[in-house]
């Protein structure tokens, strides 16, 4: 399951989006990849997470999980 929420959105013109990935199965998940397409009005700044490798190209952010997700 994937849950996406915004944190710290204000008049500062900067917001943090938190994307939480949870394996609801009893079987470990492998080769995970999450792709998030940003609206044209937003600019990507950075992405991070334990075990995740992230990169952005234009308005598309792709993150890959380096291990099994239990």
Radius of gyration: 13 Å
Share of β-strand residues:
35-45%
**Strand elements, count:** 5
Order of helices and strands: EEEEE
User: What overall geometry do the principal axes of the alpha carbons give?
Assistant: elongated
Q: Which ranges are low-confidence, i.e. pLDDT below 50, for 5 or more consecutive residues?
A: none
Q: Helical element count?
A: 0
Task: Assign the structural class, choosing from mainly alpha, mainly beta, alpha/beta, alpha+beta, or little secondary structure.
Answer: mainly beta
Please give the order of strands in the largest beta sheet: 3-5-4
Largest sheet: 3 strands, antiparallel
Q: Helical residue percent?
A: under 10%
Straight-line N-to-C gap: 12 Å
Chain-averaged pLDDT? 91
Task: Map the helices and strands.
Layout: E1 2-7, E2 16-21, E3 33-37, E4 52-57, E5 60-65
Antiparallel strand pairs: 1-2, 3-5, 4-5
What report would you give on this structure?
- With 70 residues, this protein is an all-beta fold.
- The chain is built from no helices and five strands.
- It has strands at residues 2-7, 16-21, 33-37, 52-57, 60-65.
- Strands 3-5-4 form a three-stranded antiparallel sheet, with no helix packed on it. The chain has a two-stranded antiparallel sheet with strand order 1-2.
- A hairpin with a 2-residue loop joins strand 4 (52-57) and strand 5.
- It is elongated.
- The mean pLDDT is 91.
């Amino acid at each position: 399951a994937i849950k996406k929420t915004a944190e710290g959105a204000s008049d500062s013109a900067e917001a943090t989006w938190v994307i939480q990935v949870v394996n609801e199965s009893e079987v470990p998940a492998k080769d995970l990849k999450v792709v998030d397409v940003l609206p044209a009005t937003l600019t990507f700044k950075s992405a991070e997470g334990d075990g995740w490798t992230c990169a952005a190209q234009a308005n598309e952010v792709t993150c890959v999980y380096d291990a099994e997700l239990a």
